[in-house]
User: Fold this.
Amino acid sequence: MKLNIDIACPSKPEWIAAVMDDFDAFLQDHADCERKASAMAMSFVAKYPNRTEIIPDLIDTAIEELEHFQQVYQLMQNRGIELSHSIGEDLYVKALIKKCHSGRTERFLDRLLIASVVETRGAERFRLVSEAQKEPELHRFYKILWASEAKHGHIFAKMALNYFSEEEVYSRLNWWIEQEAMIIDQLAIRPALH
Assistant:
């Protein structure tokens, strides 16, 4: 059963063109995103240790994201690309987080739904990267990641349904999808996941 909602606005063709024009830079950003995704899942465990129903899924997600980082790092090593010295600010995620509610319970719901939306956008973009690849290994790699990101989009929506009604979750998730579309549309095009 599909639990998340599809994104409202597709990525622009200019985005995939920028990625393919500077794939090395994209790989560096992709590695950073996987590290941040793993840390984000574990931050939920640290902030909400009493939410025991979702801790196993959070740990599994954190491990999977870290494995993705390892795989991207291997690709980078094979191509002679180094990791960035520092992880840059993600203006996309920052803009989403700015729109969060401030109450503890409401913010918990918002953070789960933001994670669902970010993973769903990641799935859409990894699909585009996979389809644009001429190297069979990279085509296959990004196809696998596309499926994984889509699964994570479902998992975060499912986590929210442990604590909030369907009406509350999907009403807010629809709102987030609309906000995300506006944010992604306003971002500068660059060879980065977001």
Remarks:
- The chain has a mean pLDDT of 95.
- The chain has one domain: 14-186.
- The chain has seven helices and no strands.
- Residues 104-132 form the longest helix (29 residues).
